[in-house]
Amino acid sequence: MTATEVHGAGARLLTVSGLDVEYPLKGFRRKPFRALTDINISIKPGETLGLVGESGSGKTTLGRAVLGLAPVTRGTITFAGQDISHAGRQERRKLGKDLQVVFQDPYTSLNPSLQIGDILAEPLKVQGQDPATARKRVKELLDQVGLPVDAVDRLPREFSGGQRQRVAIARALALSPKLIVCDEPVSALDLSTQAVVLDLFLQIQRDTGVSYLFVSHDLDVVRHISHRVAVMYHGEIVEQGPASTVTRSPEHPYTQRLLLASPVPDPDRQAKRRDERHRLLAAQRLQEASGIPA
């Protein structure tokens, strides 16, 4: 099942405008490293924007900037009508109710010494919920992500990778957020488990109306789950549009290379795709060496 490509009009939940992110470098008078340049994206309520690119493209940095974990040098990040570009710790704590994250590794993102019930109850208690209400909500969350009630008394190491990621998703859902930043949430899972977890994300979105900023290096994954896709290369967005268009008939050479990198079962087709990808890569390198913009 794939995410529907037609999404109704509505107010923007997240808007990123003209965003630059720079990191200072050690050394006298060294220019800062620019990780992101002039990023412009938006996400509507109930919508998924897939953010795709190879390692080092800047996609994770963009997710971190939205979460307040990367510095905003220029531009603005607006969430639910509020400018959060330079939100302080107290503001970020308040934002935690509406803005959550699911990380790549479902094991290291969970406290290994806490039982699942305590992990899920923690954000509820931080928001001031009483123990009885928190326990009830934890049971609802376990049911929502398809885990048994007795999971509350077990440790993360007692679960498979896919089950641990379900726990991480449940924790992100605990406060009924409006937006979840998903940072490569299925890349550490095997293919069959990936499909199950992706379908879980889709079902949760249908049930709750939550929005996703879904970060992935895999074009097939973002095609499956996204309404729209933005492609990142060297800290810039080089292509953006409906998922069906960007992931099947891309215009930018870099996106075309990503598409050709996806494996196909036919050896002859795979060989042709590999040759075409190498041709595009050689052309891109020649273009960059000549100083011609992509």
Textual characterization of the structure:
With 294 residues, the chain is an alpha/beta fold. It folds into two domains: 14-250, Rossmann fold; 263-294. Helices cover 39% and strands 21% of the residues. It has helices spanning 59-66, 89-95, 116-126, 131-144, 161-173, 191-208, 219-225, 243-246, 253-261, 267-289, and strands spanning 14-23, 33-43, 48-52, 74-79, 82-83, 99-102, 179-183, 211-216, 228-233, 236-242. The strands form two sheets. It has a six-stranded mixed beta sheet with strand order 6-7-8-3-9-10, sandwiched between helices. Strands 2-1-4-5 form a four-stranded antiparallel beta sheet, covered by helices on one side. Helix 3 packs across helix 4, helix 4 packs across helix 5 and helix 5 packs parallel to helix 6. The longest helix is centred in the C-terminal third of the chain and has 23 residues, at 267-289. The two termini are 34 Å apart. The relative contact order is 0.15. The model is unreliable at 1-9 (pLDDT under 50).
